[in-house]
């Protein structure tokens, strides 16, 4: 089972992402959706996923600050954000992809296909 967590302060965006994953990759399981980054951090520390979809701009704890609290990171990260200016910094956190909102079905299919190929190469 592939374990996915979504952390995004906008519930609508998190739900869209969850629905797109279910629609395109029904074999994957979204085990957590967190709109509060602090609660998401706590869950990550106790239950690391295979893949994390992480927003960057969130109140109180942005995506980068969240990751700084759990280094070293032993799961893959796809950043989801409305801002393109964070791309270089995201890849410094070993992001495997960077999706700009609004996220489409095509974006998810490409991102997850790329992730699957990467996982096969490392396993």
Descriptive notes:
- By secondary structure, the protein is an alpha/beta fold.
- It contains 5 helices and 5 strands; from the N terminus they run βαβαβαβαβα.
- It has a 5-stranded parallel sheet, with helices on both faces.
- The radius of gyration is 13 Å and the shape is globular.
- The relative contact order is 0.17.
- The model has no long low-confidence stretch (mean pLDDT 95).
By DSSP, the count of extended strands is 5
Our measurement of the CA-to-CA distance between the termini, rounded to an integer number of angstroms, reads 15 Å
Percent of residues in beta strands?
A: 15-25%
What can be said about the biggest beta sheet? Answer: 5 strands, parallel
* Largest sheet, spatial ordering of strands: 2-1-3-4-5
Features:
single chain, 123 residues, alpha/beta, 5-stranded parallel β-sheet, 5 helices, 5 strands, globular
Short description:
This protein is 44% helix and 23% strand. With 123 residues, it is an alpha/beta fold.
Question: How does the SSE layout of this entry go?
Answer:
Elements: E1 2-7, H1 11-24, E2 28-34, H2 37-46, E3 51-55, H3 63-68, E4 76-81, H4 87-92, E5 97-100, H5 105-122
Parallel strand pairs: 1-2, 1-3, 3-4, 4-5
């Amino acid at each position: 089972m592939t374990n996915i967590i979504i952390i995004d302060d906008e519930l609508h965006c998190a739900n869209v992402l969850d629905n797109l994953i279910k629609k395109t990759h029904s074999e994957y399981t979204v085990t957590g959706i967190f709109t509060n980054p602090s609660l998401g951090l706590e869950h990550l520390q106790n239950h690391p996923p295979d893949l994390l979809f992480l927003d960057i701009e969130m109140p109180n704890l942005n995506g980068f600050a969240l990751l700084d609290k759990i280094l070293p990171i032993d799961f893959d990260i796809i950043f989801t954000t409305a801002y393109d200016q964070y791309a270089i910094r995201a890849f410094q956190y070993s992001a495997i992809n960077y999706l700009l909102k609004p996220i489409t079905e095509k974006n998810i299919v490409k991102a997850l296909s790329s992730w699957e190929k990467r996982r096969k190469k490392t396993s």
